[in-house]
Amino acid sequence: MPDGLLWAYGVVRDGRAVGIHGVEGMQVAPVAVGPLAILAGRLPLSAGELQRRLEDPEHVAALARAHHAVLDAALRGGDVIPLRMGTVYESREAIRAVVAAEAARFERLLARLHGQTEWGVKGYLVPFAPPPAASGTEYLQRRLASRAHDDASADTAATLHDRLAAAASEAVLSPPRLRERAAPMVLNGAYLVRRGDGDAFAALVGRLARGETALELELTGPWPPYHFV
Amino acid sequence: MAFDDGSRPRTDSLADVLERVLDKGIVIAGDIQVNLLDIELLTIKLRLVVASVDKAKEIGIDWWEGDPALSRGAQGLAEENNQLRARVERMEAALARLEAPRDA
């Protein structure tokens, strides 16, 4: 095992360096076969130590951030196919074998994703806040109004997604997942957008947000095309 | 309007990073089989991590569970609305009966 373990980040063309350190502060370098390369870095851990890291949430968070940071740096230099976190090899030779075996699949993905980045748009329900109810009847009426408000918001989320998808090359709607706000998330969309159109997409989100009272929109990006590989 | 044009879109939210890195990205065979935590357990534990990263925010995690706002079917909603309407009507009728003698 001359290389120790190697952590794989993503697939790039023309084996460019990313100029950033990866998980556990280790260097990252392309492992190439022909025009394709997997960005990889040594892992100063045994398989058992890695597994223990992956069972500790704080380490999972740190590994996730480091994995993403390398892909983010790679994205600044061109196209990149993100690999699922936790893809680990025992040698550069093994990585080269994978690049060779998967070359056709990687080429297809890189061709489809060329010049595109991912944007995320999340929509959160604006809390329904009527004045305090003076009676039980008013209270129930307000509960009905609140439910109607939530229903309208779900319709709004679907409409917003359609508008955003129309401005994107591809779009993916995911169930609401991790959220950092108390408000319910009703839109969790990912949109593949040409690099030159990123500003226009952000402006579209801004316009839609200004016209919208039921939802708060949150835009993130540009991301490596995680949702589109 | 809730979208702040002045702020740059972020890609540093732990929730957004985790959602992508743990669940998205191409899957290819590695040499070492690593196992991530059972997803439900990870969810509970990550709640604590996310909370410790940014204590100022109120945290909710709906990993893989969906959200009632989305998972509630339209039919269920209509039914629930009807039930609530019926309850309001019954309560209004009851209130009217209670108030009637006083007004009389």
Structural descriptors:
heterodimer, A: 229 residues, 5-stranded antiparallel beta sheet, 6 helices, 41% helix, elongated, B: 104 residues, mainly alpha, 4 helices, 57% helix, rod-shaped, disordered N terminus
Description:
The complex is a heterodimer of chains A (229) and B (104). Chain A is α+β, with helices and mostly antiparallel strands. Chain A has helices spanning 47-54, 57-77, 92-101, 103-113, 136-166, 198-210; strands at residues 5-13, 29-33, 36-43, 81-82, 88-89, 116-125, 170-173, 178-179, 185-194, 215-223. In chain A, strands 1, 2, 3, 4 and 5 form a five-stranded antiparallel beta sheet that branches. In chain A, β2 and β3 (36-43) form a beta hairpin. By secondary structure, chain B is an all-alpha fold. In chain B, 57% of the residues lie in helices and 2% in strands. The model of chain B is unreliable at 1-7 and 55-73 (pLDDT under 50). Chain B has helices at 14-23, 39-53, 68-71, 74-103, and one strand spanning 60-61. Chain B starts with 13 loop residues before the first helix and ends with a helix. The chains are: A alpha+beta (229), B mainly alpha (104). At the A-B interface, β1, α1, α2, β4 and β5 of A face α1, α2, β1, α3 and α4 of B.
